[in-house]
Records
---
Amino acid sequence: MERILRERDLLLQRTARVFGLGFTALALVLLALPGAVEPGTLLLTLPLFGVLAYSQYRISVSAWLRWAIATDLSALLIVLLVSVRPEGETTLAGMLGAAQLAAGSTSSIAVVMKPRASRLAVVSVSFVLSVALIIFVTFGTGYTPALLAFVLFVWTAAFLVGSWLSASLRRASRRIANIGRAHRAERQASETEAQRRQGARLLHDTVLATLTLLAHSGYGVSEGALRQQAADDARLLRQLRLGAAPAPQSSNGYTLEPVDESVLGNTLENVKQRFGRMGLEVSWHGTGQVLLPSEILDAFLLSLAECLENVRRHSGVTVAHVTITDDPTTVRALVTDSGVGFDIGDIDTAKLGFKESVVARLRDVGGNARLFSAPGSGTTVVLEVPK
């Protein structure tokens, strides 16, 4: 979105430059015609034309006020200079040149105007001075109505061009954002469907095949082979429960982790990826190279996953931090978030979620869990298990 806004501002700047510099160049050509203005007056206006052109080139959104004032002052001073003719009336070429400056050069600032009090004041003063000077320059010549109408038309066009471009780009940015959200939703749905189909194929190739053999009393398969296949399926189900995605092999089997001991970092990455798919970014800190027995690792990771699920559902934030530390006897995980928090005293003791899924599960393997939270201050959970 920020990039779209920057591109919008650049487009408005370029439009204002082309708009203003075009009228400035035309005004200079008209004033340079023979007899339009005195040669001395023309030479006197050339530095002002230089200031005007440079200000129009440098006009930007960030430093708009400075360059807008420089544009207006230089253009209006040129109009004043060419209107002073001691020896006679102003020529038609001189009046037309003044009209180009009052109409187009000064109104170019309206293309990049934003609805702020200071900017509205500058544009309003510029418009009033431009109209007043054109009336002054052309008064009594008979060209006043036509040139005044020209000035009003160009100022209106500048407002409309700037407003139309800004509104169009805002609509385009909203539509692009909507398309992006739709794309992300479609991609998430596709990934979920792909995961579902992969899971269905995996279960069909393993657990369901084993259950089919059991239903047929293991016909054609030895008791030892059937027992081994059931043990492999049990390890597979454990990996799925922890968020892993076992890779299929050409032998119709699956790559599985050893059941006795697993490196904590490997399974932590699986948990991180699983919650990332659900919209919760998990930031890991500390060590992951810790070996834990299977039953302790299961309890530790399932408790950790339950804490992250609580963050995802209740905290109101999309980022959680998990810090893993260990000493010779204990592995600890700190799960923290900066969400809405809550009053621990308000927890309904009848609810079994945290009590059973985290505290009781860890105590069954000799571990412990502690909870810290306050309204508006986020939540921290400390999980501890023995090595």
---
Amino acid sequence: MTRDPDLQRRACEQRRARLAKLLGNRPALIAAGLPRPRNYAANLYPYRASSHFLYLFGLQLRGAIAVYDGSAFTLYLPEPHPDLALWEGPAPTFEEISAATACPVRPLARLAASVRGRAVATLAAPDVETCLEQSRLLNREIRPGVIDVLDAPLCDAMIALRLQHDEAAVAELRRAAEATAAAHRAGMAATRPGRTAAVVRAAMEAALIARGMGCAYPSIVTPHGEILHSERYDHELREGDLLLADVGAETEGGWAGDVTRTWPVSGRFSPTQRDFYLLVLEAQRRAIAAVGPGTRYRNVHVIACQTLASGLVDLGILRGDPIALAADGVVALLFPHGVGHLLGLDVHDMEDLGDRAGYAPGRERSKEFGLRALRLDRDLAPGMAITIEPGLYQVESILQNPALTRVAGDRLDRKKLAAFADVRGIRIEDDVLVTETGREVLTEAIPKSIEAVESAIG
């Protein structure tokens, strides 16, 4: 699936027009941010502009700052260093950038005069250096995660725009999903006992690089699926292990894929692994089936919890009423995270804006274990993209914590759970687009059934 530059350019123009309508005559400043050094100034991490800037302009313009003056947008850019062409090749001219964005482009040195003495809203850039520059320009402190009263209208306007994806955004999410599918198929094919997780990770990320894409987040490829965000890749893969791979593509424009699959290193699930896997798969199936316009996302999480509870009762691991086991937080001992999150330009979309983005007005994050990790509590609407990712994990720090496990009492049969010792962690995750009539699973092509997964291994 190829990228349509004209579609993306038109979409950015339309997004800026919609933002201008929401802001009225209130001025605003959006910074792209600067590259960050790994250790010394000339050794930089790969550059990625801030998601808010990419949403409006679609270009990775280092150090750019966009200003809306109450009627129109202007881009301010640093003058290219004279040596830049030597090291990186010729930079696009201001005229070429103006033509590509349909915005006037000015030297960054002229920016201060355009905002001096004005009450200008902004959103913190990802890097500290740009936040300091924003603070200097606007004569107030700008910090990541802090939404000033002056910034609130801009913040809420960006949330309103980015919650429901337009045609161009959906096209990019489809491209990310397609590349992510290729990565997971490559990872399954590369899996062998005796190899390290690093070898499988390399195969998965190579599939993305071959498509001109990178990773939307640090890849998780591990036989220790109970460590939710493990970034170790030195573990040797052994017969009897399950390998959990959470890997997602990022398109050139910054749009994310986010998928987890769990598969047996040997190519065959053991009976206990099969039981747990089928239970997680059923929880995911029911949660996805609940997705549609008007559905409260928190209820999707509850459906997943209740399905897991019912299956764990059938397996003899839990005792009692599944609804009560889910509501009381007993299931959270084995499923300690939320069922998913928003997806878009950020893998956890707009998480830089905190719960203001993820939670609808009037809703607050729970303080209960498990439910407090739910990143989204909004009513779903067409155009929203979300992940659905239930899981089961045996996390010793949870299961051996008396304060956390007290809620279970005699409802958790530890002897029955011990029989599933060859399951450290299983998660199954897909990217789902809410449609007018229901939902579309963007990553449906990735093997997920027992039979499809086993046939794809090595």
---
Amino acid sequence: MSKSSYEPELVLASSSDRRVTLLAQVGIVPDAIDPADIAETPRRSEMPRDFACRIAREKTQAVALRHANAFVLGADTVVALGRRILLKPNTPGEARAGIEALSGRRHRVLTAVHLIDTRNVERSRIVETTVSFKRLSADEIATYVETGEWRGKAGGYAIQGLAGGFVTKLNGSYSNVVGLPLYEAICILTGAGWSSDRLQKSQD
């Protein structure tokens, strides 16, 4: 994609390959990828929706300090069982416990999208998708944990991978569960003045 000198950069404040792939799917290629290095720990009694919004905002704000006059896009995805936040597991034991908790139950996936534009104006959206898992046997859970697919995944699973076979029902945005609600990402960018011509060029 050719880029005119007057077009501000689009910076993705994320280290997620999934978000890069999702954006490319709809013709959006960030000019830079600059992950934020912040603590992603829920505060005491913090609700899943509030946690997702706060982390997305803090990621974006941290990266925006390094990129003046750019569009900086950040996001955070949270898997929630009621008020309980299922974080990215660090060990096979944590992954097993997370999948066991999701087995045979319905849960929510929330992704907050945050944008800081070239004038330092901030915009946010949050999307919620409901996902139901079938009841999993102990062997199915053990086999899944052994694959290691859970590493770096909110809730310990990737719907675009093997865990897609666990899903019995999904209500809402599929791309949200993968890690970025595409419709909302496009809306927040174009609403802030990011050039839709660049989207068209990258699709040609």
